Amino acid sequence: MPDGYDVLLRDGGIAHVRPLLPADRQALHRLVDRSSERSAYLRFFTGGRNTAHSYMDRITAEKYGGHALVATMRGRLVAVAEYIPARDGSADLAILLDDAVHGHGLGTLLLEHVALEAGGHGVRELVADVLAENRPMINVLRDLGLDMTRHCDGGTLHLSIASRPTARLAAGVEARDHEAERASLTRVLEPRSVAVIGAGRDPSGVGHRVLRNLIDGGFGGPLFPVNPNAAVVAGLTCHARVPDGVDLAVVAVPARHVLEVARDCAEAGVAGLVVLTSGFAESGQGDVEADLLKICRTGGMRLVGPNCLGIVNTAVRLNASFLPRSPAAGRVALMSQSGAVGAALLERLEVSSFVSVGNKADVSGNDLLEYWEDDEHTDVIALYLESFGNPRKFARIARRVAAKKPILLVKSGRSGAGDRAVRSHTAAAATPDVAVDALARACGVIRLDSVRDLIDTARLLACQPLPKGRRVAIVGNSGGPEAMAADACERHGLVVPELPSGLLAARTAAALGNPVDLTADATADEIGGAVKALVEASDVDVVLIIYTPPFGSGLEETRQAIAAATKDAATTVLACVVGHDGLIDGRVPAYVFPEQAVGALAHVVRYAEWRARPAVPAAEPPSVDTAAARQIVHAELALAPDGRWLSPTAALRLLACYGLSLVESADVSGPDDAAEAAVRLGLPAVLKAAGPVHKSDVGGVRLNLRTAEEVRQAYHEMSSRIGSEMTGAVLQPMLPGGVEIIIGGVNYPAFGPLAMVGMGGVTAELLADRAFRVPPVTDAAEMIEELRCSPLLHGYRGSPLVRVDALADQLVRVSKLLEDLPEVAELDLNPVIVTADRVTTVDVRIRIAPCAPPQSPLLRRLR
């Protein structure tokens, strides 16, 4: 980290953490001078400040700087932490904080980072001597989450802290990160005061419209229009500069003035900046946007935008946007990367809050998930994204948040592999869009194809309880739309069960079934009575009402009957009022078409099932040697720094580290070599060209070669046909038939690893029968069952049952390999032949590529 990184503190403040530099010497001495005598005594014992000054001279010497971190806030050095390694694998731990930043969580954060860095450099334990009376430091070290032992020697505690990360450390880091994120956005989304910089007198101007929206929306705190060229705007006194201590500043000035305004805001102690102005990264001015972010971070401000519509929080009557209409209050929190999409959604959704993130220079969906997780006014979270900033962090946060509140995601830019230079079956199939799907599935996020789907699903989730199961009762006055609804249920895997006899017989004389067709003559009372009976039935999880106006008693009276029948219902209820949408009695979502209603319901049912499913921890497969695998990869990259396809021998060695084996094979380089190997391994044999990925397409596979002479002749013919691309061949014994499966994986620099299982052999791409997961794979058996070919594994039409359990084990091991080794860019095991007694991998291709080590999820930092 040559330039360091920014971090959030417990109170929402921002600090910058970087390595100690020799040039920091004077700043460190000033830190000592600012420390109280008490602080100097607790840290340096009887030596006090004199010892402290000597210590600062020592650690700024070049030989120590590599193990020390400093933290700055608003440009001032406020903390230093270091570890000094010893030869026995331990290291002395030391930390000093400015008295002014005690209690902000900076000490805990620095200790986390120092411990992780020390552990990464081979330090086994950190040792610290702390005065017994220094309870705050003892508590910080105890609460860090690392294993610690201590013994007392007089008034001094000798603490030994294991640097190995623990589950307690991970939980503590997650909790502290959440607290800091929440605090940093509270003053932005729940400000006590707002300044509008660039609020002019022209009612059509953006700044004026923002100020008018704040006034008309009834914001209760002080409002400060900032305009040096006006005395009064919208009835409020103007200010030449932003007043001190304002929580939120909305910036609507030309792009050339934004940096100057940001500096003024930082000097005034503003907590958050919403920059509506365009003309930054979206216009090729990425450097200017980076300068804006740096000003905000140094000044301790969170930044929304630039190039955005603004923010809304209906709970505190905040409309700091230039939207044409004030959004309606509701229970859905909405973030949109597109202003146009956000405005369209607000026309149809009632929201608790709305954030238009624009260029997403700072505040992103990850930050907002942290805030909305505990927001008492939010029940549903909806995101429209054009890009992921930190997808791995998104997955970690979203998995936790989705266990409490549903998260809806529309991600634009669905596309294929494009121009990516991939040569494996898996990488060709695992497009970036497939990766997003797998990521969403892994963390319980409901991914949707369109804005309309988002609106439909959000309404159902915001107004109704989650379904307890998949059983849907369909009732209404229109046989055609009811049949369409039943067909849609079947397509989505929902169940339309036969209803218990007598359930509705006493309430209507109509012919009964499911769907329940009450006919066009049914009155509002008859429809209401049938609905009430169904929502009270124990055999029904969801009631879908289909009503076609104006038949029966008419639209309004029927809506009233539905409202009365569902008033106290614990069952999920939704309706299709053909030609009309909205909410019935503010509780029952109504859709224009039956397929719309069922589509939304299917998303909600799958989410309810995910949420009810107990969390399964990732199992560690036995016989895994990760250290040896890393050595193999590093050795191969030393020979080929740009990466390469592993030789069959190297690939076999790497697989063996994970308990994965290949059918006995021999690398051969000529006809005679191949004939000798065939005799040694056994006949009949298989000969496969080593070079091409699609061997069958170019005649690079010859099966059932029964004699050594046939093997020799096959090599001659194959070499003549393929030429120099053949690069040798692999000779294997011919195996008995079984079900051919492919197991594969790919590693994306941003998304991380993705595991795949599918129909293998020559049909791998033809049938496109695949399932994907983000490692670690905890549901391998379920993943396999998703395949259309899965019946072949279970005795389809009298075929033998095969070892699905062994196949699942192989899939888990490949998942573990991909998770441990980000340098494995592409991996194919194809085919994997599954038989009644074994699982045998016949062919393997592995490509490695250099990559930066993934950032530890335990290292708290702003992106």
Describe the protein in words.
- With 863 residues, the protein is of the alpha/beta class.
- Among the domains are: 5-165, 3-Layer(aba) Sandwich (Aminopeptidase); 466-612, Succinyl-CoA synthetase domains (Rossmann fold, 3-Layer(aba) Sandwich); 664-734, ATP-grasp fold, A domain (Dna Ligase, domain 1).
- It has 25 helices and 39 strands.
- The protein has an 8-stranded mixed β-sheet with strand order 1-2-3-4-5-6-8-7.
- The longest helix has 23 residues, at 167-189.
- The chain is globular and about 95 Å long.
Q: What's the structural blueprint in terms of helices and strands?
A:
Elements: E1 5-8, E2 14-19, H1 25-34, H2 37-44, H3 48-59, E3 68-73, E4 76-85, E5 90-97, H4 106-120, E6 125-131, H5 135-143, E7 148-153, E8 156-162, H6 167-189, E9 194-197, H7 206-216, E10 223-226, E11 232-233, E12 236-237, E13 248-251, H8 255-268, E14 272-275, H9 286-298, E15 302-304, E16 310-313, E17 318-321, E18 329-336, H10 339-348, E19 351-356, H11 365-373, E20 380-385, H12 391-402, E21 407-411, H13 425-429, H14 432-442, E22 446-448, H15 451-463, E23 472-476, H16 479-491, E24 516-517, H17 524-535, E25 542-547, H18 555-565, E26 572-577, E27 582-584, E28 588-591, H19 594-612, H20 626-639, E29 644-645, H21 648-656, E30 666-668, H22 671-681, E31 685-689, E32 701-705, H23 708-722, E33 729-733, E34 739-748, E35 752-759, E36 770-773, H24 780-785, H25 804-820, E37 824-834, E38 839-841, E39 844-848
Parallel strand pairs: 5-6, 9-10, 9-13, 13-14, 14-15, 18-19, 18-20, 20-21, 21-22, 23-24, 23-25, 25-26, 26-28
Antiparallel strand pairs: 1-2, 2-3, 3-4, 4-5, 6-8, 7-8, 11-12, 16-17, 16-19, 27-28, 29-39, 30-33, 31-32, 31-33, 34-35, 34-37, 35-36, 37-38, 37-39
Helix pairs in contact: 1-3, 2-3, 6-11, 8-9, 11-12, 15-19, 16-19, 17-18, 20-21, 22-23
